[in-house]
Amino acid sequence: MLTNFILLAQAQHALPIFLIIPFLFLIGMIAAGPIFFGHFWEHNYKTVAVVLGLTVLLYYLFALGDYHMPAHTLAEYITFATLLSSLYIAAGGIYLNINANATPAMNVALVAVGAVLANFIGTTGASLLLIRPFIRLNVHRIKPYQIIFFIFIVSNAGGLLTPLGDPPLFIGFIKGVPFFWTLIHLFTPWVLSIILLCLLFFLVDRRNKETAFTPRPEVVAKNEAKTEFHFSGKRNLFWLAIIIGAVFLDPNVIDGLPHIYYDGNKFSFLREIIQLTAAFMCYRFSNKTALAGNKFNFHPILEVVFLFFGIFFTMMPALQLSAEIASAPQYAQFITPNFLYWVTGSLSGFLDNAPTYANFLSLAMAKYDMAQNMPVDVKQFATGTSAAGLDTLIELEAISLAAVLFGAFTYIGNGPNFMVKAIAESAGINMPTFFGYILRYSIPFLLPILVLVWFLVVHLRIF
User: In Å, what is the CA distance from 170 to each residue of 73, 164, 241?
Assistant: First the structure.
């Protein structure tokens, strides 16, 4: 069946199947490089990622004569890299230290706070703000699984309630999904996911017997029953607010904003200029004590920026092929909420969840002769007021849940994942490999929750 799908896509659109090889090679290098040739990978990952990305890009431009897909991908990458870089710099100048004992209950409370915070400053902002305090809190008993659950909860599932929470939901918002749609329709799945993930984290963390929860001496010396917070770098909160507020300056939503017009689309540049300016001001005037306390350096963000350059451009053929296969007329009957949940989710875990969300929103709407570039159509699709009725609402719920929750399945499913991994490794934590992450954590801990959410919300439609 899969072979037939691929042959069909090639026959209809003449996109060579070999174009997915650079993407598979890059993912293989990300997975195997640190294990089998760590020294080479450490010194050459930038070159490998850029060369592979440029190879696919040049093929599109000069062999296929396709400028549309590269232009959209470049715009998405610039927006992605600018936001992550700006938030990384702003958060790097904010020093938060929690003077308490790292009990399982304290750890769960911290990630739960992060899950709520993610809906106001995004999963990226919440992750970068809390990951260093989380590591410092657990410094005497830090283990890789703690970072993984942080990624599950704060960097992904937490941001399910607002368009600010996760990039896929923001894409839906700027295309026409009402701002409070996620809060109204995804609140119960959010509560279910966060409670189950926190419960699993608590049960696993209880087994961490390295210190038998012996109170830290410096905490006991002050007040064994009291939790204290030390905070510095308050001025960066202002710039952090500017960076997050600039996210809304989208020319597709607000008329009159300066933009670059190409192929019927408005590409933003004012938003990116504001964010980069705020990031520069953050770094230029940051509290030096806060920077030193966070051991701030640019290595983690550079790793993300270079690797995702390769990922964004090499995954163009994979995204196109998957959309072309799924949109074939003879397979329209299979485009159900169950299909959308599992296919959107599977691709979100391995291809980055934001463009996957956009592709499958377009695919689901095309089934009803609706266009994702028409805000009125998107709003009707989201609210179930179209001719198809509530079916469209359930389908959007399936796409949204899958894009956000499955984003935690691999390091590359969502931007903050790799950022948190890089920060943890710079702190000396021996993080699992790409496949180690999937086999040891995603499959045994995350997958059962993904199945339960699907069964209750998408399949049975209980919530």
Answer: 16, 6, 17
User: Taking the complete model, does pTM exceed 0.90, yes or no?
Assistant: no
Within 352-460, residue ranges assigned H as helices are 353-366, 375-383, 390-405, 415-426, 434-437, 447-453
83-114 burial code (b ≥16 CB/10 A, e <16): bbbbbbbbbbbbbbbbbbbbbbeebbebbbeb
Is 90 exceeded by the pLDDT of residue 285?
Answer: no
95-99 vs 228-232, strand pairing mode: antiparallel
Question: Tokens 């995350």 belong to which residue?
Answer: 446
| Interacting residues of 425 by C-beta distance below 8 A, sequence separation 6+ | 431
The position carrying tokens 């995204």 is 319
- In degrees rounded to 5, what are phi and psi of residue 448? -60, -35
Q: Which of these, 220, 428, 459, lies nearest to 336 by C-alpha position?
A: 459
Q: What value does the mean pLDDT of the chain take?
A: 85
Calculate Rg over the CA atoms of the chain: 22
From the list 383, 362, 385, 364, the residue with the least C-alpha distance to 374 is: 362
Residues paired with residue 239 on neighbouring β-strands, in sequence order = none
Find the angle CA(342)-CA(174)-CA(78) to the nearest 5 degrees.
Answer: 85
- Residue 227 has a CB neighbour count (10 Å cut-off) of 12
pLDDT digits (tens, 9 = 90+) for 69-114: 899 889 889 988 898 899 889 888 888 887 778 899 999 999 999 9
Within 8 A by CB and 6+ apart from 157, the residues are: 115, 190, 193, 194, 197, 404, 405, 408
Give the type of residue at 76: E
pLDDT greater at residue 458 or residue 1: 458
Contacts of 212 (CB under 8 A, 6+ apart): none
CA distance 128 to 83: 12
Residues 403 and 399: their CA atoms lie apart, in Å, by 6
Distance of CA 421 to the CA centre of its chain: 13
Scan for tokens 């198809």, then name that residue: 388
Distance CA 442, CA 342 (A): 15
**Size of the chain, expressed as the number of residues it contains:** 463
* Amino acid letter for position 200: L
The helix or strand, by DSSP H or E, that contains position 125, with its residue range, turns out to be helix 104-137
